[in-house]
Design a protein that fits this description.
The chain has 352 residues and is an all-alpha fold. It has 15 helices and 2 strands. The longest helix has 31 residues. The protein starts with a helix and ends in an 18-residue tail after the last helix.
Length: 352
Amino acid sequence: MTPPSTRRRSLPGHGHPVGTYGLLALTVLLFLVFSLLLPATFPTLDNVSAILSNQSVPALLALAATLPIAAGRFDLSLGYALGLAHVMVMYLVVEAGWPWPWACLAVVLGGGLAGVVNGVIVEFARIDSFIATLGTGSMMYAVSGWITDGGRIVPGPDGLPAAFPGLYDSRLLGLPLPAFYVLALVVLLWVVLERLPFGRYVYVIGSNPRAAAILGIPTHRYSVYAFAGSGLVVGFAGVLLAAQQQTGNPSVGLDYLLPAFVGALLGSTAIRPGRVNALGTLVAVTVLAVGLAGIGQLGAQFWATPLFNGATLLIAVGLAGYSARRRLRTGAAGAFPGGRAGPPAKGSAPPA
């Protein structure tokens, strides 16, 4: 009989506390360090509100990236799609005269449709997700430039409807409203990925597509669903970005692509180490937000932000790979008496 300690190690989600909660502890540590270095500005409600507000769009995009990555795919069109979505909102409201709620709904649904197109190209045209989404993203960027004629969409003298910027500027319980959008999406994705069959299927597809096919999981369909869900989130992020900036700039979305992947990949080392997950992504985005806010207030140069994001991405990819390998080794060891690893059964799927 397998000892209880071995059984606990073999259960998914029961990792070492350092691996599970280390990133969360790092967040607290960074906040304390910057609070000691900047006692007059950093540990204040205004600063916390600014961090929550400024990082809402990057957080949404990181959560959008989580879904395709869970299915073993990468969507490099996220930044281009974000730029197109926020340009389309401004175009429909300012140029076409649409009521802003209908414009926002159309853009969110359009984001979902763009995700479906990405999924179909990847799954049924059999084009690698890097190549396919880079190509569709470039086309989205072209459409953004065509809509704006290479310039910006700026509201007229009457400005935008007052309720539209309120999507970003409003506050709830003393905190910025966008923070609650992010929290609601995290809860939704946690339920979908951790508590519903959809999540189990997507994780199996991402970890072992052949095993998923043997188990009868329609891999192509669920991969398309993952891209579609990601597109819906990107569409909503574009709406929020338009409400924040109140202008239509076709190139603005490109700045958000790298932080999105940093957040999603770094998040795969926390909470559920070895796989991307919504709670881990939230923790990772928080670490990045606190770190960037701190070095910014310390007077870092403009190049510090891309340097920080690039270095963190390399660290995130390395840690994600290590966590995945460690999780597989732990699962294999727990499956055999005495903790000895052995070959998996033919056609068996790794734990989701």
